[in-house]
Write a structure and sequence with these properties.
- This protein is an alpha/beta fold.
- It has one domain: P-loop containing nucleotide triphosphate hydrolases (Rossmann fold).
- Helix content is 39%, strand content 14%.
- The chain has helices spanning 16-29, 44-48, 60-65, 70-73, 94-99, 109-115, 134-142, 160-172, 193-206, 226-230, 238-241, 246-260; strands spanning 3-7, 34-38, 75-76, 82-85, 123-127, 145-151, 179-186.
- Strands 3-4-2-5-1-6-7 form a seven-stranded mixed β-sheet, sandwiched between helices.
- β3 and β4 form a beta hairpin.
- α6 (109-115) packs parallel to α7 (134-142).
- The longest helix is centred in the C-terminal third of the chain and has 15 residues, at 246-260.
- It is globular, with a radius of gyration of 17 Å.
- The structure holds adenosine-5'-diphosphate (ADP) and magnesium ion.
- Residues 12-18, 44, 130, 186-187, 222, 224-225, 228-229, 232, 247 line the site of adenosine-5'-diphosphate.
Length: 261
């Protein structure tokens, strides 16, 4: 079966989309068949891969509503082995469906849709919105594991307890297999004491839940890197836009760590 990994953190701007796009692209570069699912109404992952609204008619919203099969909305990207389920601002409308108490098993809608594509992919990477609402719950319920990007800034760990509680609640109820794959420190700046403090805190509390390159004791950290910030406007993941930049190397290392398990 495909391994399904959600990228989640209810905070906005912490690097979820960047991580989803670049992990997906790096796994594809390693020869894995990858499907990136954008389930954020802001559709930044879709845009980051160079698609605009005129480039596709149907999106994840139509899949969740039951109007389209997931296989009918999948787009081929410019990157070999990488496909995309696009999103669109219209997806905000799905929350009404998800909140409808008559709608039984509404946490499991995405899981059932993903099951339709069976094991056509090695990895399915889900980019979730900045909220712990029904869309993110659907993502976590459909996933084998979750990667949590942590921005190395003040308040980085705030709200983390709530996310971890949600994960453990889902694990006890509808998704017993859900694992925390790991925490990924993002936007790290070596000159910034606050960045170092956040990394120290993470290493202290979650040492065995950070990602390590093979044979290294230094965990994988995504540096604050201008190439990462520039790449979405070129419609490319940073690993294609500036493949040898420090940001790219971190995401390539993350993909290797994910493949090694
Ligand atoms: N390591 C980084 N260095 C510099 N800019 C980054 C980095 N990671 C993300 N960004 C930028 O920060 C903004 C927020 O990142 P994004 O991945 O969209 O976060 P989220 O999906 O959690 O809201 C984007 O403009 C993105 O290009
Ligand atoms: Mg995002």
């Amino acid at each position: 079966m495909s391994e399904i990994i959600s990228i989640a953190n209810q905070k906005g701007g912490v690097g979820k989309t960047t991580t989803a796009v670049n992990l997906a692209a790096s796994l594809a570069e390693r020869g894995k068949k990858v499907l990136l699912m954008d389930i954020d109404p802001q559709s930044n992952a879709t845009t980051s891969l160079g698609f605009n609204r005129s480039g596709y008619e149907f999106n994840i919203y139509h899949v969740l509503l039951g109007i389209k099969k997931i296989s009918e909305v999948i787009l081929k990207t410019d990157i070999k082995n990488l496909s995309l389920v696009p999103s669109n601002i219209g997806l905000v409308g799905i929350e009404k469906e998800f909140y409808n108490p008559k709608n039984k098993n509404r946490e499991l809608i995405l899981r059932h849709k993903v099951q339709e594509i069976g094991n056509s992919y090695d990895y399915i990477i889900i980019d979730s919105p900045p909220a712990l609402g029904p869309i993110t719950i659907n993502a976590l319920s459909a996933s084998d594991s979750v990667i949590i990007p942590i921005q190395c800034e003040f308040f980085a760990l705030e709200g983390l307890a709530q996310l971890l509680n949600t994960v453990s609640l889902l694990k006890k109820t509808i998704n017993p297999q859900l694992q925390i794959k790991g925490f990924l420190p993002t936007m790290y700046s070596g000159q910034n004491n606050l960045s170092k403090q956040v990394l120290d805190d993470l290493s202290h509390h979650f040492k065995d839940k950070l990602f390590y390159p093979k044979g290294s004791k230094e965990c994988i950290v995504v540096p604050r890197n201008v190439k990462i910030a520039e790449s979405p406007s070129f419609g490319k993941p940073v690993i294609k836009y500036a493949s040898t930049s420090k940001g790219s190397l971190s995401y390539k290392a993350l993909a290797l760590a994910v493949i090694k398990g």
